[in-house]
Design brief:
The chain is α/β, with parallel strands linked by helices. It is built from 14 helices and 15 strands.
């Protein structure tokens, strides 16, 4: 029995004239993930087929589960589109399984086939009952569901469905710059951005000696978790010490976080332009901390006209944590290494800052010069899926 992996697009079906662009991008991403595995891919606007060797399915399944743009996929038996071949194939598949109840569902896209979908299901169900003893049909809760797809040249029978991540293929949108701290929220924001097809670079604000090298390594580890869902992430490390020290030396304590975030957004805009990114992405969740009230967001956001995406803005903490656990970033995020957003948190940060006061406070030091130096001194760490895999194999 010849088997193929049958990939269903899901949301990509909402695309019409440019669907081929998204399908081609998905094909490229799958090829990149499976480049060391012997496969052949055939695609059209409705579905994609992957020819593969059975011995490779475990690793293929693991890789496909982390490719955005796939709604679902099945390991399907390929059969000629005629009733005799369908009969023989479904008997062979049924004899490999141990079950007491079953159901057959058919989808017929080839309308010229002599039987309609209901008639095909009824016929094949009868064939199974005739050839397998001590079984019965259960239309509500079958142990085995035989799915049949009737197409022009070849048809498919399968009994399994693996669900993908959905969304759009990474690279179907241009680049965004992710503010990646060591917390729980920003990696989730990065994951959700990738799901919408956005290529991401990550930016980490470092304030050594107030933050540690371990804190940076923690962020690198988070980037390595995210790169499993794409092919490469460039992590830009911003030297933020001088700016942060000037803020805490010169500004009113209640406004230090507000001023710090305003400086970060200015730097993010500079880095975005420098790296040809079109948006800034962060893990802000409305009302979660003092700098994320709507008033604070408004005052902080005033320094830039650059588009800012907040994927977790309307999620509560438990929802964010659940996604973090699902994508395996949670345990890394809770490691006890402080970043520059937490190391100097004042006892009573302002919740509803005034824009005029924020502007007055930041005029107390030459922030423009320091921002220019920080952007110029930013260095970049390239993180690739291939290098991450090699590192894990050494452990």
């Amino acid at each position: 029995m010849k088997k193929i992996i049958l990939i269903k697009y899901g949301e990509l079906f909402t695309k019409k004239g440019n669907r081929n662009f998204f399908v081609t991008k998905l094909e490229q991403n799958i090829m990149n993930k499976l480049k060391n595995i012997d496969i052949k891919i055939h695609k059209n606007k409705s579905f994609m087929q992957i020819e593969f060797n059975d011995k490779d399915f475990k690793i293929i399944n693991e890789k496909l589960s982390k490719v955005f743009g796939i709604h679902a996929y099945q390991v399907a038996n390929v059969v000629d589109t005629n009733i005799e071949s369908l009969d023989q194939e479904i008997i062979a598949i049924a004899k490999e399984k141990d079950f007491k109840t079953f159901k057959v569902e058919t989808k017929r896209s080839l309308k010229s086939f002599p039987l309609n979908s209901m008639e095909i299901s009824k016929h094949l169900g009868g064939v199974i009952l005739k050839n397998i003893k001590n079984i019965k049909v259960d239309v509500k809760n079958p142990e085995v569901l035989f799915k049949v797809e009737i197409k022009k040249d070849k048809s498919y029978i399968y009994t399994n469905t693996y669900y993908g991540l959905g969304g759009y293929p990474v690279g179907s949108q241009p680049k965004g710059m992710l503010m990646l701290s060591g917390g729980i929220d920003s990696p989730v924001a990065g994951f959700l951005s990738l799901k919408r097809g956005i290529v991401i670079d990550a930016v980490y604000f470092e304030a050594i000696p107030h933050t540690s090298i371990e804190a940076r390594k923690k962020v690198e580890s988070l980037a390595k978790k995210l790169v499993e869902y794409t092919n490469e992430i460039r992590l830009h490390v911003v030297p933020f010490t001088a700016i942060q020290e000037e803020i805490y030396k010169n500004c009113h304590p209640a406004y230090t976080i507000t001023i710090m975030r305003r400086m970060m957004y200015r730097i993010m805009e500079g880095l975005a332009k420098k790296n040809n990114a079109l948006v800034i992405i962060n893990g802000e969740s409305i009302g979660q901390v003092a700098s994320q009230t709507l008033t604070s967001i408004n005052v902080i956001n005033e320094v830039t006209n650059f588009p800012i995406i907040r994927p977790v803005a309307c999620l509560d903490k438990l929802e964010i944590m659940n996604i973090a656990k699902k994508i395996d970033t949670y345990e890394t995020s809770i490691l006890p290494y402080e970043d520059c957003c937490t190391v100097f948190v004042p006892k009573h940060p302002v919740i509803n800052p005034k824009l005029e006061i924020a502007k007055e406070e930041e005029q107390k030091f030459d922030y423009q010069k320091l921002i220019g130096l920080a952007i110029n001194d930013t260095f970049t760490i390239k993180i690739t899926a291939e290098e991450t895999k090699k590192f894990e194999e050494l452990l």
